[in-house]
């Protein structure tokens, strides 16, 4: 018999109006209110995390990044040697 899944409990006090709204929405989707609320909260949490992880650059940083893409610096000698070794290895196969 598998061990029961570990869970944590979350409680919240909400208004009767919000409770009725959540209950109706859950019923319309054919889900329990717990399932409806947990899914909605999980989706909201994932969106909040994704939005926080988006890289935000100032206008000056954006211009610097675009310039680096449009005019990359010349490769250093070590990089040139590494590419030469790679070409040699690929030809040897």
UniProtKB/TrEMBL annotation:
InterPro entries: Ribbon_hlx_hlx, TacA_1-like
GO process annotations (BP): regulation of DNA-templated transcription
Keywords: Toxin-antitoxin system
Family under the similarity heading: Belongs to the TacA antitoxin family.
NCBIfam families, sorted: YlcI_YnfO_N
PANTHER family membership: ABC-TYPE TRANSPORT SYSTEM, COPG FAMILY HELIX-TURN-HELIX PROTEIN-RELATED-RELATED
Protein name listed in UniProt: Uncharacterized conserved protein, DUF1778 family
Source species of the chain: Thermomonas hydrothermalis
């Amino acid at each position: 018999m598998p061990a029961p899944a570990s869970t944590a409990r979350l409680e919240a006090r909400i208004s009767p109006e919000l409770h009725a709204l959540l209950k109706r929405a859950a019923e319309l989707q054919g889900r329990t209110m717990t399932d409806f609320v947990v899914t909605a909260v999980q989706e909201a949490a994932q969106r909040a995390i994704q939005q926080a992880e988006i890289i935000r650059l100032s206008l000056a940083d954006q211009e610097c990044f675009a310039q680096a893409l449009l005019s990359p610096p010349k490769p250093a000698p070590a990089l040139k040697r590494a590419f030469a070794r790679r070409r040699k290895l690929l030809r040897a196969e």
